[in-house]
């Protein structure tokens, strides 16, 4: 047995650790998303057993992610829980298509600043929203509303003993998670998040504290395959923006996580297109079950690697433990205080904010830091999908601007033709500067324009240079002589007019 599975012991122990980390996070993400807690467990089970068995990345673990909490909550608020399955189903099918078409590897090309900005914006919205949950208050719908309403929420909490007790449990949960890392290594074999939830649950029961707890039913009771009415929503354009957002953001988060996990171990590297297919298959099944969307999650994945996992068996076993726990002991979930889960998510949101990266970027690349901040602010101010699109647009514009460096050198010996040398990348972004310099040349002198030093000459620039050459030659001077870029098949002197 051990000869067939040489890493069985390491994978078994790692699966226990990942399971202990996943339980409070599955439940917490579901509650924060405005859906029954069991739906988070179902997504975790599918992510472990189904996606875990498929090829792609061997050590990263999939399940409901805090990064999609805001988007899921908005979708449930707008379309209802019954339509969530359709959204996740179609998003999963889109992921399958992208994987089969080989699009998975392109996600590696997305700017790191946009990724960090996305995580920062998500973290801010999660923190703001879960502070309300920790106090037992209803959170505003928008990201800006959540942040702007915090002073009033704290004022309301100060006037309510129940809210203060609830806040204390949430704050205590965060304190346990943070301080747990300072305890001896032997103690840390129990994940801090699990220890915090257990302590909060024990305190709530021991002192009969008046706080809300998770409402739990059986797994079968919450499985709701999407019906005809839910599929009817696809006729409206509004839902498609949400579907595309689910597919793109879930894919990006999974593949960004894969790149990060690959840096944590020396095992087989991720096959990005296969991982995209695995995520798509998992989300398709989650959609059919009416559950939450899944992504690969860096928190669970890094715990898996740190626990010594060697093969995909650890993540599959973690899904098996989730299934057994949810089926055999659902009553245990009903004991968990909601403020404790809010505390876990506040801590998770805080870890998503890249404080060090922002500082380092500002020192070395202020433009990248600007993109990061604008992406984060856009997600808070508008929503996840449009915020990421704004960040991507800024990143593309910045890259295009930096890539279009061009140098114009003019040599005038006082007699004979004026020689103008263009080198670099001539694009429409630099066209005004190029034309200003050329039009300033004397109209009564012949000009030789040498483009052989250009690496790239776009159509707009070529057309504008040809027009300038015609205008300059029209004054009666000798026609402008143009030397084409070396990459051109016409790499010889030609007459422009």
TrEMBL record:
The entry's keywords: Membrane, Transmembrane, Transmembrane helix
InterPro entries cross-referenced by the UniProt entry: SLC26A/SulP_dom (IPR011547), SLC26A/SulP_fam (IPR001902)
Superkingdom classification of source: Bacteria
Pfam families on file: Sulfate_transp
Topology with respect to the bilayer: Multi-pass membrane protein
Record localization: Membrane
Annotated stretches, region: Disordered: 472-497
Major subcellular site: membrane
Record bears the keyword Transmembrane helix: yes
Domain SLC26A/SulP transporter: start-end pairs: 8-375
Membrane spanning residue stretches: 12-32, 39-59, 79-103, 115-137, 157-180, 192-214, 234-256, 277-299, 319-348, 369-394
Protein name as annotated: Sulfate transporter family protein
Native source organism of the sequence: Streptomyces lomondensis
